[in-house]
Write a structure and sequence with these properties.
alpha/beta, ABC transporter transmembrane region fold, Rossmann fold, six-stranded mixed sheet, four-stranded antiparallel sheet, disordered C terminus
Length: 580
């Protein structure tokens, strides 16, 4: 049970203390009106049995006590209620932030194994279940179990026999619950998987909405998503249909205790061994105790389901982070020694690669599509660790360096730029924490982005669409370069930014790139070979291996793969669509 509480609180069971305490106190204090009611009945019955009038002063005093009680209850319960829920939702907010921070520290290999929709569901949907568990289910479940125990002890002072009859069926109800737990866990896991699959398909649909609209995809194209929705529906119905009878049997067994108590009480009163006032007291207390107990039983089923969400979160939080604690060295050369790497079980993308990237030099990576250029750059930046071999940064194995300190030494400019749904200013400022407005604007000017930014409706305070959808490709590239300029890292990894731009934007972006790479260690993936002519070294790759390297003229003279690619690109310059 301790493990379940740890799971349902995502590793912080102490968060339950306050809400459980206030719930138990609330249940106990709520018995006060019923105790007052019993005293009122006792006073009236005793007066009638003597043939006299009841003590009106006492009755008015009890009524006044109830008014004071209601006022005090309201004054005490409202702050307690707020404190419990503030703790529950505050813990959930902190948990989401911790999970996001954890994701930032994992290697990209983890994300290639997980569907993005699954992670979104974990951060939002799973924590939503935990919020309900911490604020409602667990406190009410524990409170509903503690109250009968206290009530049983108190009622034993009135009549142990009646108290025993009242709660005799509880062990049988508990046995029914225990026998159903294994089945419930199996059904709950299937339901959780079906829910995650449906969420993944929705995420896939939203990510591909442009393709769907462009190609008018209908009918069979949505069969996968429809199957996921129907699967989720079937698992939901199955979970409710199979577990419902168990819950009803357990509730019926609990209610059976009240029936047994009434039958026994009538029998004892007829026999003269139980006075009517005690019987009325058992009826009042019994009806009050059974409601929280029934709620506790129902919450038990939901609680076990919520533990699955907690276990998923704990499993992610226990994923190994990228190792390394050392400071990044002052040298900024990079070297790969016999590096081999592949994605999962898909075979090796890089095979026994040996390469040196000298400090302050520009190295270009060229080769056919799929030869491993982008993967090589990701391994260099330690987005992934190689399966074998070593990547050295400044002569030190990157696996021995603190990943965050290493990242501060490297700037990235990707061909596919992603901008956040935020202002232009903040998108550039991501390059360096605490950057001033003047520094942001200076970086934009050097990236040749200042002029088009000032033409935007709110200038630097203009909010761009998700992913930068409101900007052109060239504009996004220049903002990305401004971000890298602001970071001012000594190493720049550049997936050629001009590959898919029109001539006008290509010229502007190339000028911005020239400002970025000056005086730095630069590695560029070159799709257009004419941009490599002035590189200090050109590395030619094919099928995950380095097949040649040298300067532009040397590679052309050797007449290898580079020379063939150069010839093909020169042919394509004059290519045009055929006409009639």
């Amino acid at each position: 049970m301790k493990g379940m509480f740890r799971a349902v609180t995502a590793g912080h069971p102490e968060k339950l203390r306050k809400s459980v305490f206030f719930t138990i106190v609330s249940y106990l204090v709520n018995l006060v009106p019923f105790a007052v009611a019993i005293e009122v009945v006792r006073t009236v019955i005793e007066a009638w049995s003597r043939g006299g009038e009841p003590d009106m002063a006492k009755l008015w005093g009890l009524c006044a006590f109830l008014f004071v009680y209601l006022f005090v209850m309201y004054a005490a319960e409202v702050p307690a209620y707020r404190a419990c829920y503030r703790d529950a939702y505050g813990a959930s907010a902190r948990g989401r932030a911790e999970l996001a921070e954890k994701l930032r520290k994992l290697s990209l290999g983890y994300f290639s194994r997980r569907d993005p929709g699954d992670l979104v569901n974990m951060i939002m949907g799973d924590f939503l279940l935990l919020e309900a568990a911490v604020s409602h289910q667990v406190p009410q479940m524990i409170g509903g179990l503690v109250l009968p125990v206290i009530a049983f002890v108190g009622l034993c002072f009135w009549s142990p026999l009646m108290a025993g009859a009242m709660f005799v069926s509880l062990p049988v109800a508990a046995l029914v619950l225990l026998l159903s737990t294994r089945l419930q866990d199996r059904l709950s896991r299937k339901h959780m998987r079906a829910k995650i699959d449906a969420g993944n398909r929705i995420q896939e649909y939203m990510n591909g909405i442009r393709v769907i609209k462009a190609y008018n995809l209908t009918g069979d194209r949505f069969a996968r998503m429809e199957r996921a929705f129907r699967g989720f529906m079937r698992e939901s119905i199955r979970l409710e249909a199979i577990m419902g009878p168990f819950a009803m049997v357990a509730i019926s067994l609990i209610r059976l205790g009240l029936t047994l108590m009434i039958v026994l009480g009538v029998h004892l009163m007829i026999g003269g061994t139980l006075d009517p006032l005690t019987f009325v007291g058992f009826l009042i207390v019994g009806t009050r105790v059974y409601d929280p107990l029934t709620a506790a039983l129902l919450n038990f089923f939901v609680f076990r389901y919520s533990t699955l969400a907690g276990k998923r979160i704990l499993s992610l939080m226990e994923e190994p982070e990228m190792a390394g604690e050392g400071d990044a060295p002052e040298r900024h050369d990079i070297e790969l020694r016999d590096v081999t790497f592949g994605y999962g079980d898909g075979g090796h993308v890089l095979k026994n690669v040996d390469l040196k990237f000298p400090e302050g030099k520009l190295t270009a990576l060229v080769g056919p599509s799929g030869c491993g250029k982008t993967t090589l750059m990701k391994v260099m930046a330690r987005f992934y660790d190689p399966q074998s071999g070593t990547v050295l940064f400044g002569g030190t194995d990157e696996r021995d360096l603190d990943p965050e300190k290493l990242m501060k030494r490297i700037s990235f400019v990707f061909q596919d730029v992603y901008l956040f749904r935020d202002t232009v200013r903040n998108n550039i400022a991501f390059g360096r924490e605490g950057a001033t407005d003047a520094e942001v604007e200076e970086a934009a000017k050097r990236a040749r982005a200042h002029e088009f930014i000032m033409r935007l409706p709110q200038g630097y305070d203009t909010v761009v669409g998700e992913g930068g959808s409101t900007l052109s490709g060239g504009e996004k590239q220049r903002i990305s370069i401004a971000r890298a300029l602001l970071k001012d890292a000594p190493v720049v990894l550049l997936d050629e930014a001009t590959a898919s731009l029109d001539p006008e934007n290509e010229v502007e972006v190339q000028r911005a790139v020239n400002a970025l790479v000056e005086g730095r260690t630069v590695v560029v993936i070159a799709h257009k070979l004419r941009t490599t002519q002035n590189a200090d070294n050109i590395v030619v790759m094919e099928a995950g291996r380095v097949v040649d390297q040298g300067r532009h003229e040397e590679l052309l003279e050797r007449g290898g793969l580079y020379a063939r690619l150069w010839a093909l690109q020169n042919e394509s310059v004059g290519w045009s669509l055929a006409g009639d």
